[in-house]
Write a structure and sequence with these properties.
Layout: H1 3-21, H2 28-49, H3 52-74
Amino acid sequence: MDGGLFVLVWLVLTVVFLIIQRTERVKKRGVMFVMLLFAVPLAWFINLRDAWGGAVVALIAAVVMNWLFWVLVGRYNPVGSSDNIRVLGMDD
């Protein structure tokens, strides 16, 4: 297993899962589609290198890291809603 490829795949998958995890519920489907645009070239690159074993290990590591983030931070700080955002102008 190539260490550099493992770190690359792990980092990309961790960021993709974290972005999906911290997206508000209304916009989650659109964000998943955009993140799929990152996953397809990654899968192509893994297939080109024939490194599916390392990619599966990186996937498992990314899922574990995102689960730990959710357990330690995400449960206590839920994703906000865009309805709660208040923009302050010059008169406020």
